Amino acid sequence: MKIEWTTHMLSGAVAGYVVTSDWKGAMVGGIAGVLPDLDEPKSKFGKGLPFVSIPLNKLFGHRTLTHSLLFAVLAGLSLWPFIGQPYAFAAVLGILAHVAGDMLTGRVQVLYPKRKWVGISVSRFGFFLIDRFVRIGLILWVFVVVGQNILMMR
To answer: How far is CA 128 from CA 14, 48, 110, 122, in A?
Structure first.
């Protein structure tokens, strides 16, 4: 089981905002937060990019390379020249937020290429509870931060 893509996008957006304090960082983090599931052809974004997801899945499998520290670092270094250091860091944290979320509801090879699975296996009900709890917590955080920013602008 995996956390739904909307929770991944939201956790990535929060991570991106935390490091940049702006909406662009939140956008970069949110997009990066769904990137690791490109290795799954049945995922929301894997379906839209089968020419990427199918080869990734056949070569590496799900929750391996794209769910690793190596992938996060390589993505950040690749993006740095194009989007700058703060936004590249937002992308790295967005990816890592995804990986952390998957580790709460299953196992990943976070140290890939080392083939050690790390994480917590939970029941379907446990997954549902964790996903909803995390999503609601992130939404509340967003409302608090946006509310504070609106109040500060007055």
So the answer is: 21, 25, 23, 10
The whole-model pTM stands at 0.91
The terminus-to-terminus CA distance of the chain in angstroms comes to 44
Q: What does the DSSP assignment read for the chain?
A: ----HHHHHHHHHHHHHHHH-SHHHHHHHHHHTTGGGGG-TTSHHHHH-HHHHHHHHHHH-TTSGGGSHHHHHHHHHHHHHHH-HHHHHHHHHHHHHHHHHHHHHSEE-TTTTS---EE----HHHHHHHHHHHHHHHHHHHHHHHHHHHHHH-
Place of tokens 């939404």: 139
Query: 75: closest CA among 97, 107, 57?
Result: 97
Q: What does the mean pLDDT of the chain come to?
A: 93
46-100 pLDDT tens trace: 999 999 999 999 999 999 999 999 999 999 999 999 999 999 999 999 999 999 9
φ, ψ of residue 121 in degrees (nearest 5): -85, 130
